[in-house]
Amino acid sequence: MSGCSPDPSLTCASSPDRSRDNQAERHIPHQRRTQTGLAKGTIMPKDTAMTRYIIRHARPSDIPAMRAMQERSMWVLGGNFYTADQIADFLTLFGTMDDAVVFEGHYFVAEDRHGAILGSGGWTRSRPGYAQGLGACETLFDVQTVRSVFVDPAATRRGIASAIMNRTERDALQHGVDTLHLTATLSGVALYEALGYQMEEATELSFPNQTRFGCIRMEKSLAKLRIRAA
Predict the structure, then answer these.
(1) Which residue windows does the record flag with biased composition (Basic and acidic residues) (predicted)?
(2) pLDDT tens, 157-213?
(3) Which CATH number is correct for 51-229, 3.40.630.30, 3.30.360.10, 3.30.750.24, 3.40.50.720?
């Protein structure tokens, strides 16, 4: 599941090549970038390095820190849309992420200069573990799916989720994907709409104790991105 919200995944392929970390992208929020193009009188923060982060491939060694960040994100950012019981049931039954998404090689993290993980997300060809909670909708998940997009509650409004999604979409394009699908938590819908994802249907996960967990299935064609990249 995606959008500062949880999502487990299943099968794994090859481990990501750690040499690709040399291609990590560095990001500085637009309003805090260096002197080029700044309006007259703009005051730069004393330590602009504090605002920076990189986007790189996730590694197996990142998994404990990622999972801790993801659970914080779900409790804090998801708390405005779900009850504590709903969140607890989701985390107990499905968790925030299956380790296999990391080994498949299309999962990314945002990391600050101290090595702290500020966000995570990516895509996979594997069927999400939460699909079983959608009953008849399970067959809809035999597609390329955005997975486990989270941002640490202490690092919101820095463009991290958008940067991760940008990297995810470009990576999917490079691997021949034409359309990405996702199941957004209610807390993530606004982000995905802003990024051009279209609503397919409102649905909900059903838990054995009859708890319901609302979510929105969405999709985005990558055709325009492919044209720009050509």
Answers:
(1) 17-28
(2) 999 999 999 999 999 999 999 999 999 999 999 999 999 999 999 988 888 888 889
(3) 3.40.630.30
